[in-house]
Amino acid sequence: MNVVYELVHWGFYLYYILIIIYILLSWVPQARETPIAYFLARLVEPYLSIFRNLIPPFGMLDISPIVALIALHFMEYGVLYILGLVIGWLA
């Protein structure tokens, strides 16, 4: 039971890290042209585009990735809670 919980938790953690790396790559001028950046864009951009469509940028500042990370955090807790109910960790 604990293995499933850990796998789900580490999956969300890995996605957090991928989003943060993708955000940091946007600060380096030529970094978005690398194969790693294209790979990260294919993984992260579909999720981030949801928030970019909802939240307009404030001038040069795009806060949608911050909101996306907060939403991902709440999704993780929701999934883990439902998983706990299904498996029977929570009474």
TrEMBL record:
Pfam family, one: CCB3_YggT
Alphabetical keyword list: Membrane, Transmembrane, Transmembrane helix
Residues passing through the membrane, by range: 12-29, 67-90
Family matches, as InterPro entries: CCB3/YggT (IPR003425)
GO terms under cellular component: membrane
Source species, domain of life: Bacteria
Classification via PANTHER family: PROTEIN COFACTOR ASSEMBLY OF COMPLEX C SUBUNIT B CCB3, CHLOROPLASTIC-RELATED, YLMG HOMOLOG PROTEIN 2, CHLOROPLASTIC
Similarity comment: Belongs to the YggT family.
Name of the protein in its database record: Membrane protein
Lineage, top ranks: Bacteria, Bacillati, Bacillota, Bacilli, Bacillales
